[in-house]
Amino acid sequence: MRRTLVTIVIACQVFVLAFMAVKREYIALTGRTVHLRTAPLDPRDLFRGDYVRLRYEISNVSYSKADPDLIEQFRKNRTGTTVYAALTDGEDGLAEVASLSLNKPQGLFLKGRFASYNDQSASGAGLPVVYGIESYFVEQDKGLVMERMRGTRNTVQIPMEMELAIAEDGTAVLKGHRWSRLGLGIEMLTTRQTGTGLRKKSAQFRITFKNNTEKPLALVNMPGYCSLILEPVSYQEHGAEVPVKPFCATLKPSPGDVVTLGPDSTGHVDIDLSDPDWQVIYQGKAQEPGELHWQERFRIVYHPPAAAACAELREADLVWHGRMSTAAFHGRGNID
Question: How many separate domains does the chain show?
Answer without folding.
Answer: 2
